[in-house]
């Protein structure tokens, strides 16, 4: 789960509303010895902050302080792990560097009989060297939303290949309406992974020992993003994670998150369809990115075992809280398969379609062994290809060199 969420009002477990009023220190005082500090990034949805404070207040085993963190949450966590024992518990996506530097602790012993109930790919994404370092909280994905009426008017069939997507976006450029919005960076941030998957490639090889895009098809598919940029909306007041460009009628199609489904259906009713990102060709595949913030425990914390007990209570034992967190504030999938039936927005229509996309073509968007430096090198290369017309082969060669260095470093 990223910082780009949009959940609806708090309401599935109504009794928690009374607990939420206690505030960030749960009404039992703050800063005292024995207090657990739990960090979240600043979700943008109404009700989430009250809900997680309510969960903390209900915990019988310790006083828990919830801290909301606006701004650059990931950098703040990185700094905290290097310098202090606070937070005790935090949400993030595991990084190999954190494991190598012993900044987080294994959590395999928390799952017990529930392990098989968690979505396997999520557990794998939080696993390093065979040990689990994060308990997934909920599943987010991104899909291609389109206006049925606008496609019908233009005589456009919903695209199932990358070339069809490019052609559709160009044909849907009419007057003040652009064909597609995928972010103000021209889709570099959110389409790099789906483009790789569309060509049958990935960030890493299956064993994680080599880059997964050391293939001429990578240059081919990133060249397609340059073509697509000719039809994209750029300079939107809101970025890809917000549905504003789509619901306000500025674009016929938008790549954005499942979490926006309630807002989109409220605005446009049944005049919407959804698709996975299309395949490049018969050798590629349709896909959607799957991501989840997971609860982790700081190895420097004052009481690691107490922190683990709290994580087990909240994200393994309290199924009603897990269901609410995933489904009551926008549309998300629970991280546990047995709870998916409670996801009311996903039982029919576009929501049900998206569940199918995740089941058939969900791919991990942020592998633990894919480092920040390697990601920056690839993103910069794709940006130069898409926005500046740089040579794809040369740009990817430089990105491959960085990725190989990072993989070697992590294997030392």
TrEMBL record:
GO terms for biological process: maltodextrin transmembrane transport; maltose transport. The keyword Signal applies. InterPro entries: SBP (IPR006059). Pfam families: SBP_bac_1 (PF01547). Keywords: Signal, Transport. GO terms for molecular function: maltose binding. One of its GO terms (cellular component) is ATP-binding cassette (ABC) transporter complex, substrate-binding subunit-containing. Belongs to the bacterial solute-binding protein 1 family. This is Carbohydrate ABC transporter substrate-binding protein (CUT1 family). The lineage of its organism: Bacteria, Bacillati, Actinomycetota, Actinomycetes, Pseudonocardiales.
């Amino acid at each position: 789960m990223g910082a780009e969420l949009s959940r609806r009002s708090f309401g599935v477990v109504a009794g928690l509303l009374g607990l939420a009023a206690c505030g960030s220190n749960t009404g039992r005082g703050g800063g005292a010895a024995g207090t657990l500090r739990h960090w979240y990034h600043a979700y943008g949805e109404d009700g989430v902050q009250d809900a997680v404070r309510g969960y903390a207040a209900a915990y019988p085993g310790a006083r828990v302080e919830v801290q909301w963190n606006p701004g650059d949450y990931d950098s703040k966590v990185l700094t905290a792990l290097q310098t202090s024992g606070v937070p005790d518990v935090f949400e993030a996506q595991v990084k190999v560097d954190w494991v190598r530097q012993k900044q987080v602790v294994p959590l395999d012993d928390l799952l017990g009989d529930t392990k098989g109930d968690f979505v396997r790919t999520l557990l794998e994404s939080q696993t390093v060297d065979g040990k689990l370092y994060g308990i997934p909280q909920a599943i987010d994905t991104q899909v291609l939303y389109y206006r049925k009426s606008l496609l019908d008017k233009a005589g456009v069939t919903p695209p199932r290949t990358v070339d069809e997507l490019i052609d559709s976006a160009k044909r849907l450029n009419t007057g003040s309406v652009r064909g597609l919005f995928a972010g103000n960076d021209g889709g570099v941030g959110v389409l790099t992974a789906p483009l790789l998957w569309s060509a049958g490639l990935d960030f890493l090889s299956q064993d994680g020992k080599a880059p997964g895009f050391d293939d001429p098809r990578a240059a081919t598919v990133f060249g397609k993003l340059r073509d697509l940029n000719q039809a994209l909306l750029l300079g939107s007041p809101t970025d890809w994670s917000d549905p504003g460009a789509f619901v306000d009628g500025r674009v016929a199609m938008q790549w954005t998150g499942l979490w926006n489904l309630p807002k989109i259906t409220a605005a446009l009713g049944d005049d919407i369809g959804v698709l996975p990102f299309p395949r490049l060709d018969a050798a590629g595949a349709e896909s959607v990115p799957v991501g989840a913030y997971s609860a982790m425990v700081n190895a420097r914390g004052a009481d690691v075992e107490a922190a683990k007990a709290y994580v087990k209570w909240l994200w393994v034992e309290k199924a009603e809280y897990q269901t609410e967190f995933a489904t009551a504030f926008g549309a998300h999938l629970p991280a546990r398969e047995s709870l998916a039936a409670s996801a009311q927005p996903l039982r029919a229509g576009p929501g049900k379609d998206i569940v199918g996309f995740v089941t058939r073509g969900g791919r991990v968007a942020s592998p633990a062994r894919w480092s920040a430096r390697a990601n920056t090198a690839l993103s910069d290369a794709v940006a130069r290809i898409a926005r500046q017309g740089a040579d794809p082969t040369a740009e990817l060669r430089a990105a491959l060199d960085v990725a190989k260095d990072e993989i070697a470093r992590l294997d030392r």
